[in-house]
Fold this sequence. Notes:
Blueprint: H1 2-8, H2 12-22, H3 29-41, E1 50-59, E2 62-69, H4 82-86, H5 90-100, E3 101-102, H6 107-111, H7 115-129, H8 132-139
Antiparallel strand pairs: 1-2, 2-3
Helix pairs in contact: 1-2, 3-7
Amino acid sequence: MARAWIESGPYSLLTQHTESHVKHAPTSDNERSAAPIQDTLRNDSTQSNTHTLDTPLVRGKQTLDAITLRKPTVGELRGASLSDLINLDVAALQKVLPRISSPTLTEHDVANLDPADLIMLGGIFASFLMPKAVKSKLDSPSA
């Protein structure tokens, strides 16, 4: 039952896309650029949810070199569409990342992130939305 939901539910495209990268070495530029995101999606609770920024954020005299995200509660997702969050929509991430980041980011900080950093933080965030069944499927050697 769970497998059928994974294969036909909202995570089907994500798992199909992930499986295509796991089964063979990346050959195209798109596949090479997706590989770090796939590693982030496999992130589990025993691994760090911290991303070291490629381009540090500067706030006055303070420089932010790394951002840690924690799993959001449903209340922290308010005002953002789940489909937009799953698709890593920039506006949706601008609403939610400040609520779950440490040090706390502002919407302005998120708007000023390097796009590569936003993608990596979005990948960490996306891993929070995946059910355990999907995560275990991604971690299985046959995937």
